[in-house]
Amino acid sequence: MDGSQPAGRDPAIDHDQLFEELLTMFFAEFLLLFFPRLAAAIDLD
Question: Do residues 31 and 42 make contact, with C-beta atoms less than 8 angstroms apart?
């Protein structure tokens, strides 16, 4: 293998940026799913 990208694939996906956007959009749901006791103590509105 020469390390090149297969045809048709996006050569540079910024996974950190994608995770940050998802966490920003779904922060309340993230807390409710992974930290329900913390979410109950925080006003998420």
Answer: yes
